[in-house]
Structure formats: C-alpha cells, structure tokens
Amino acid sequence: MKKVLSVILFSSSMAIAQVKPSDDNTKSDIRYNLNESGSHYVKVTFTNQAWFRFNDNNPGTTVLSDPKSSTFDIGLRRTRIQLFGQITDRIFFYTQYGMNNFNKTSAFPSYNTTGTPSQRKVAAFFHDAVGEYEVQRKGTNFIRFGGGLTIVNGLSRFSQPSIGTIMTMDVPVFAQATVDQTDQFSRKLSVYSRGQIGKFNYRVGLADPFPIETNGATPPTLNQNSVFSQRKNHKQFEALFIYNIFDTEDNTTPGYMTGTYLGKRKVLNIEAGIISQKNATWRKEAVDTLYGNMTLWSVAAYMDMPVNKVKGTAVSAYLGYFDTNYGKGYLRYNGIMNPATGTSQPIAGVSRTQGNAYPMFGTGSVVYAQAGYKLKDGLLGSQGTLMPYASLQHADYERLRDGMNVFNLGVNWLIKGNNGKMTLNYENRPVYRNSTVANELDKYARRGSWTLQYQISI
C-alpha cells in the first residue's frame, strides 16, 4: 500500500510540474521538484528530428558502389534526451544522450566500401556530461564555473546552438569548426566559466582536444595542405563575449544558445568570439614537417524580437563574419547526413566529395546571414502558423578560385511552436573540380536538395 501511495504522489507531483510553462519555448516542463519552491529540480527533455530528403548528387556519386545521380533518403538528423537539474542553490548538472545523422549509409562510411562488417547499432553516445558551481548570483547576474564534456566554447552562438529552437532547418555547421575532428560532435573535455554581468554575457574556457586518430576515420595523410596534427598537441583556448542591448537571454543550460524565441523576448546582441590552439595542424613542405596554429574568430549581431505582440508576429536575423585560419591550404568537405558512400570522380587533395558534400570548412573567411519572419498566431487556425526564412553562407577559402555561396530557403510550419513543427527546406550548393592551377579548385556547376523535417520536442 505504501508503494502504491508513493507512486501516486510521485505521479501527481510530475503532472503538476508538467503544466508549468517554460519562459522561452512554450514548453510544458517534465520535471520533478526537489523542494517546495521548485528552485531545486530535475528535468527531462526529448527531441527528435526526422528528415525526408531528395538530393541531386555531386558528379560521380556512388551508393554502396552503385552509381547514383540522385537519391531519396530517410534519416534521423538528431535524436536527443537531456537530463539536468539544480541540485542546490549553487550546484547544477547537465547531461545529454543521443545520436546524429542516422540513415541507411551512416554505419557504412565512404572508407568502408570493401564489405568489411559494420555496426549500425552504435550511433548513440553521451554528448554532454558537465557539472557547474555558482560562485555568485545577484538578480539576473551570476558567475559560474564548470567542467566536463561540454559544447561550451568560443567563436559564436551557432558554435553552441540549441538544436530544438533552430529557426532554419539546420544550423550553419561551418561554425562548429572542428566538428568530429578533434571534438566529439562539437563537444570537448573542458573547464570554463560563464556568467551574466549586467548587459554583458561571457564564457571563457580551456579545452583538451581529442586526438584526430580517435574520430573513427582514417586520419588524413600528411601532405602540402594543413590537416589536424597527430603530434605536439596543445590545449585549446576559447572565449565568447556578448553584449545584450535589450533583454538578456536564457542561461539555464551551459552553451546551447537559442535559435529563435518566436517573439517571446526582445533580443538584440553584439558578439565576438575566438578559438585558438597552438600546433593544431601540420603539413609537409619538401622534407620538412611544419606545424600551424589554429586561430578562428568572429564578430556578429543577432536580433530576435516581436513585431506585433497582439498578432504574435516576430522577426529573427543574424549576420556574422568569421576569420578561419586552420593553417595553410586547409580545406575540408562535409555533407550533412551524407546519403552516399563513394565517388568515381575524386578530387585531388580533398576526400569524401560525394553525395551532398561541399567545401564547408577552410582557411579563409566566411560571411553568414539568416533572416526569418514569424507570421501571426493562428494563421492556420488550431494548426498553428508559418515562419519563412532564408540563409546564405559566403566563403572565401584559400584553395577555392571562386567564392562559395550556399543558399537555403525554407518555411517552418509551427504547429505548436518549436515543440511540434515541420520544415520544408531547399538548399543550393556549388560543385567544384580540380583547377588548372595546382592545388586549387574551380567551381563549375551547382546542385540542390529538398528536405522535409518533422521535429518533436518535449
């Protein structure tokens, strides 16, 4: 009888907690309060992003050795569970478990085309496991110190995005500069401090990057172009500084900066960030091995605010400049949840150019912009409203003879804010080939892809 009563009381407390709305995302919290006021609690969230995509593949693309000029694939872009909470007034913990980029070919990467056995059941892993201690708080001001496996870093807000609140269908992945090279899906083992002092928000940290040899792929061969080094590894310094002109942002979890507040806050920020690491890359020049320092920095402005509070209309926009110095000649192709496994038309000096890949990362500079407009609440009656958007990534990388432009156009169907939404997105990207100039690439065509995403977030 006592066990039954305990279950009833626990279920009742959970049900009461669930109707408490979140400040930013119109969510109902799944939480268990540890004290009467609810200031101490444990909370659970879940997010799943399913993709249904048609892609015009890059020339020469093969899927499991079969030539494919186009593909239709179904996949899970992200599936995540978060468990976090405020244990005492000063102690906070955060964990996240899940998987990314899970489709038919995800367990059969491009370097495994010989029939070697693969395992599709090993995709999920801990993304974050971090503890924080708050040394000071006064009103909305606070100073915290933390450590563990975390996405807290410098460079930009999109280097540590809240994936459940993305305005565009996906984040600008180039801003997650070392993703799955010397980090674990953008997370690193780090110690850091973050805080809010008046209108000023900061985060500074020291990370211990993972060896490139442990990322699950064969390390790039040492050649004339910079690649991440396998020797003389150093710690990584990072910092991000933000000035909040109007409202301050949600600072509950470490990292994870909101994509759009859907008009719930009036936010206008100016930011500057940096990531720096000594001897991060190496290259070969004649018989000498030369090491290069990685220095990445950015400046940006972010706006997200209501236009008409009565109607519920809102605008969101971002404009940023990124200086990306990985070392001489660094260039890396990447295709998000790539539907292909190989190519019959390889490009000298780069790898994995099949499917939907393009030169996403490189030494040079990037300008990134995005803008969206949330239409009035109830536009579709009880089925929510719409939020169209557009984005542009313009990159000038050393080894590209022509500037690279990647366009995205899309619309969000906000059925229940960010808790339940569908996104239809069209992406248009450039295709490159070897240039007549040694070690450079020429742009000669473009390809596109259509993706429908269905997001559930609790």
Tell me about this structure.
It comes from Dyadobacter pollutisoli. Keywords: Signal. Residues 1-17 form the signal peptide. This is Porin. It contains 1 helix and 23 strands. Strands 2-5-6-7-8-9-10-12-13-14-15-19-20-21-22-23 form a 16-stranded antiparallel beta barrel. With 458 residues, it is mostly beta strands. A hairpin with a 2-residue loop joins strand 7 and strand 8. Residues 1-26 have low confidence and may be disordered. The chain has one helix spanning 2-18, and strands at residues 30-33, 41-56, 61-63, 66-67, 70-86, 91-102, 125-138, 141-150, 188-197, 200-208, 227-228, 236-244, 267-285, 288-308, 313-325, 331-334, 342-343, 358-362, 364-374, 385-397, 404-416, 420-434, 441-457. 4% of the residues lie in helices and 53% in strands. The chain has a single domain (2-457), classed as Porin (Beta Barrel).
Question: What's a concise summary of this model?
Answer:
By secondary structure, the chain is mainly β. It has one helix at residues 2-18; strands at residues 30-33, 41-56, 61-63, 66-67, 70-86, 91-102, 125-138, 141-150, 188-197, 200-208, 227-228, 236-244, 267-285, 288-308, 313-325, 331-334, 342-343, 358-362, 364-374, 385-397, 404-416, 420-434, 441-457. The chain has a single domain (2-457), classed as Porin (Beta Barrel), CATH 2.40.160.10.
